[in-house]
Amino acid sequence: MPLREYNHHVLTSAHKEQWQGSYAAIESGIADYLGCSFLNNPRLGELAAKALGLPQPFIRNMANDRNFDDVKDDSAGQDIHGTGEVWSGALWAMRTALNRDVSDPIIAKAWLSMKWPNVDSEKPLAFTTALLAAAGQRGPEQAKAVRAVLQSRHFPLPS
Predict the structure, then answer these.
(1) What is the pLDDT of residue 45?
(2) Distance (Å, whole) CA 75 – CA 149
(3) What's the angle, vertex CA 4, arms to CA 20 and CA 71, rounded to 5?
(4) What does pTM read for this prediction?
(5) pLDDT at position 37
């Protein structure tokens, strides 16, 4: 969990967005993902879950099969962490398809290159577009793998 909180600091310092809605959900998912990727463990907060006596042995699990259809109607961003888990699940699937040394730089580059639209509902497509652009800079096979993961999880994609 300390890695996740540090990731929040690093990620939010790159953009001067208000932490709400789609921006917050995407940022939360990336913060979860990066800490878990570093530790090579898709389960976030195993020690915290145990200490808190939670019924499941973790706070969130990146190794999930959740898709964007589960959360696309949450335009108010009321469940930022739940929506973040959908994003982190897709990122973990990218990591599985490409490996950490390829996927993590793609995710970081996409985040740092973001020009966030003003309209909240446009932010998921803007981020998937940035992911695909960053993957494309690595090569066509990487872009194909990222598109396949996002498409299989029903994320909005550019044509």
Answers:
(1) 84
(2) 22
(3) 40
(4) 0.93
(5) 97
Q: Among candidates 85, 105, 103, 69, which has minimal Cα distance to 26?
A: 85
**Among 8, 36, 17, which residue's Cα sits nearest to residue 116?**
17
pLDDT score for 75: 58
CATH 2.40.50.180 fits 2-152, yes or no: no
Do the Cβ atoms of 62 and 92 come closer than 8 Å? yes
Query: What pLDDT does residue 27 have?
Result: 97
CB-side neighbour CA atoms (13 Å) of 119: 4
What is the rounded radius of gyration, in angstroms, for the C-alpha atoms of the chain?
15
Low-confidence ranges of the chain (pLDDT < 50): none
Q: Which two tokens stand for residue 41?
A: 């463990």
Local structure of 110: helix, strand or coil:
helix
State the number of CA atoms in the 13 A half-sphere of 50 facing the CB. Answer: 4
Q: Which residue has the tokens 């990487």?
A: 142
Q: Does residue 143 contact residue 137 with C-beta atoms inside 8 Å?
A: no
The answer to whether 56 touches 49, Cβ cutoff 8 Å, is yes
Name residues whose C-beta falls within 8 Å of residue 58's C-beta, 6 or more positions apart in sequence: 43, 44, 45, 46, 49
